[in-house]
Amino acid sequence: MNITPQQNTEIQTPPKLTIIVISYNTRAMTLKCIETVFAETRDTSFELIILDNASTDGSAEALMDRYSDKATVICSAENLGFAAANNVVAKQASGEFLLLLNPDTEVLDGAIDKLVAFSESRPEARIWGGGTVFPDKRLNPASSWGRMTYWSLISTLSGLSSVFKNTSIFNVEGMGGWDRQGDKYVDIITGCFLLIQKNFWEELGGFDKDFFMYGEEADLCLRATKLGARPLATSRAIIIHHGGASETVQSDKMVRLLNAKVKLIQKHFSPGSGRFAVYLLTLWPLSRYLAHSILAAAGWKSSQLPASVWKNIWGRRTTWRNPAG
Hints:
The chain contains twelve helices and 13 strands. The protein has helices at residues 27-40, 59-67, 82-92, 111-121, 150-158, 160-163, 198-204, 216-226, 250-268, 271-297, 307-315, 317-320; strands at 3-6, 17-23, 46-53, 72-76, 97-101, 105-107, 127-133, 139-140, 144-145, 183-185, 188-189, 193-197, 232-241. Strands 1, 2, 3, 4, 5, 6, 7, 8, 10, 12 and 13 form an eleven-stranded mixed beta sheet that branches. A two-stranded antiparallel sheet has the order 9-11. It starts with a strand and ends in a 5-residue tail after the last helix. By secondary structure, it is of the alpha/beta class. Helix 5 runs parallel beside helix 10, helix 8 runs parallel beside helix 9 (250-268) and helix 9 packs across helix 11. 42% of the residues lie in helices and 19% in strands.
């Protein structure tokens, strides 16, 4: 692995927090993200380490040009993936806490300060996350999730999770019955805004590098829960999360997501139950393809993925069902 660091020389004493940003072809968004980090983080001593995952849009050059005197910039010659890149940076971190922050985010109203303060008031959680909104300040509910279960897979396969998306009974993983207000113990904190103590991160061994992109934070939180952690989400700390900025091809994104789900099943379900869970997951894109084809033929227009995308995903099932894919 060939990486070139541009070391920040301003940090004199160990900071409270190390903020980690992994950038990949999101130049403008990454620069905006970092701008808001410095503008909105006033009460917490921090260092910022940015790793650029071999971007081709000039991200690395722009980051070193603009922030080399305020942050440590690492330019990787290869795309390490989200999980492995975070592991690389975490080894260099000197903060007591690690904050994983996506490059397609913007810090609002002292959100990082608020999340750190919240973590110190609720130490039993051991992993903490804030809330996310879209750029127009509408709620983005993807800041936390419920774990995958047989029932969640059945609800997704049958379409019940979409028809009754505002109920937690059917939309289990999306926690559809929670409006994201207040504080709540959750199964999974999304890696776009995840706070963890560095020593606990090290105890967990960081992210499992087998998760190239998607699923790594779910695996981390599920492993943490087995060690007594209780991941906690709060609406006291809010950021903008654009979402999906580094992956623009819909079918490719879904293939990666489904591959990650297969890996999660194989790690966190028993062997016997896992095979059935993968079977249920495999049928999901086929059911979406058939349903959207029928609805399109009837003249119904959906704001979701079209039948052609689901057909592509179903056709590539041998790729995403392979845990090594």
